[in-house]
Write the structure tokens for this entry.
Amino acid sequence: MKKLGLLTFAAVVLMAANVRAAAVYVRDIKVEGLERVEPETVMSYIDIQRNKTVSQDRLDEALKQLYATGLFTDVVFNFKSDGLLTIKVVENPIINKRVFDGNNKVDDSILESEVQLAPRAIYSRSKVQEDVQRILEVYKRSGRYAAVVEPKIIKRDQNRVDLVYEINEGPIATINKVNFVGNRHYSDDDLQEEIMSKESRWYRIFSSAENYDPEKTNYDKEMLRRFYLKRGYADFRVVSAIAELSPDKKSFVLTFVLDEGKRYKVSDIEIVSEIAEVDVAPMYEEVLFEKGDWYNAELADKTVTALTEELGKKGFAFVDVIPVLEKDTQTGEIKIKFEIKEGDRIFVNRINISGNTRTRDEVIRREFRIEEGDAFNASKLKASRRNVENLNYFSKVDIQTDPQDENKADVNVNVEEKSTGYFNVGVGYSTVNGALIRAGVTENNFQGRGQQLGLDVAVSQRTSEYQASFTEPYFMGRRLAAGVDLFRTDTDYQDEGSYDEETTGGRLRLGWNYTDDFSQYLRYTLKKDKISNVDRDASYYIKEEAGSYTGSVIGQTVVYDKRDSAINPKEGYYLSFGNDVAGLGGDEKYLKFDGKAYKYYTLADYYTFKFFVNAGYIVGYNGKDVRLSNRYYLGGSTRRGFETAGIGARDKFTKDALGGNWMVYSGAEMTFPIGLDELGIKGRTFVDMGMLGKPDNIDERYVDYSSSPRVAAGFGFQWLSPMGQIDIDIAFPIVKEKYDETEVFRLNFGTRL
């Protein structure tokens, strides 16, 4: 009996297999349950024809194809003995409305750009789940790994549904701890300073540095690599960077596993050239390190750039400088060979500019030192980039070359615009002028044409200043910066029983560049100075100058600027010399000379030093003394620690500043990180020194005067806040005269328009 049962079972299985494999005849096909989809659409998917035979396998495949369309929730095949195939379907509903609920941190527009399903699309559970994953990825990119998305549907008539994504965004996943493994020569604190990913701390509430971001971690790996390569560790590598998410998905532990490798010293430096015309001997002056120094990959790269630029200046535009390293792991020495090879002749095909929604192309294009059709020159391209950055219109300037064929390349310029309009406000107090409010409106890129328009107003209890200015940097389509200034100053000295002073005038300016570094400026100033309302008890020197005087002044300034940046210099120097001649008409006759020198130096990439000295001298001629309004004054922004015009000769009775006929002021300043770089906050310390010379024809019996140096030292902070730059300085006068007006605290802050 047992054997018979097994045989019977086998026969049934065999018959079923035969039936499945057997072809069936389809006389007709009927589709039921359709509401929106046409029967012809169904027939196009199944590929089964009437009055034809079809295998069971083909019927199964047709069933899968209908499900795969996403049009139907359910599909059933019924086959009758008379050859009628009935296909019963249940259509997926149409999405009537799609709603995101609970997304307070991510805009609807961002989520809409990520998901597939939209109103009037066919609802599909699988696509809904795919969209859920896309939404979660959006939140992960913003650091919210604990986000939860629950899709819900609300049924409507006519087989429509409202699709609602209920979102619980959750907190931003912060970095709870950063670990370093394998660092023997540098501490965790040293390495922590190098990377962008920071451990969560209460004072980083305005920073995103403590938020975990995989892209940021990749950047950190590169920064660690650069850190070690700069210090001689030529074999350094990041073995791994592991981010472990906490069970509550609210924080990460970030671990960098490092292999420091061996530290190398430079044993030899060699420059070889495949180009016979190149004399390599003077090229060694461009090498930024010496034998016996620790290997520094950054200096090696800078040397490659310096060699390339120097060769370009000598007429060798198409060269490749390749550094070749020969390491001796036994001795810890490394030989660096710079190979100069003739490169392919490349010409600029097109210069493509993108990202500038406001700034006109021509404003960017005119700053380029290379044009379409020119031979490619890396040195000129670098200068072009610096020129565009110095416009201060863009937060990012990215220039890339895109080869088009064997001898042509496009130059792609991508910029990211920033606000070029500023509303600057300054608040202060002094024992002389009382409360002070300064406000200025400046637009450095007027109408996207690169024009500069400014208005500045300063009002105190004793002084009012007004100035309007306009500059066209490319006058008449040439590299001529033409501008006009209108100004007026009203100063009230009546509190001390002395005088009122008014200065009204205008200025025309014209400037041009001889080279990218060397420029000259001409100016003509016409002004009227008026000393009025002089009290009968006023200083003799004030009474003597009562009345109105017209000054007609022509002047010029030459500038030699070798700073790496005009906006935020870290290296290089700046020199200028100017002189003015008054007397081409008007009442005043004088000669004036001014000079400035600035030097910038950055140590260890963090500490930037600025050394500067300014000097000036003014002298009358044709028997004319230098009047009160044209003398030099020190204090305020020129000498921290002292009030504006707080240094120099001062009437003993009225306490009015009388200025001086010469001045020298100098100083040193260091900016440094204070652990808040991610907030844009840096510290600074400074020492300022100034001297002011004697004015004309004063009697020291009635005037307090000393040309001795005044010295102040202090510290401050610079914050690149969301509102603009904020400067805070605390200065303490160290050397001063008892009659000088001092100012310990100074605040300046600006807000973007």
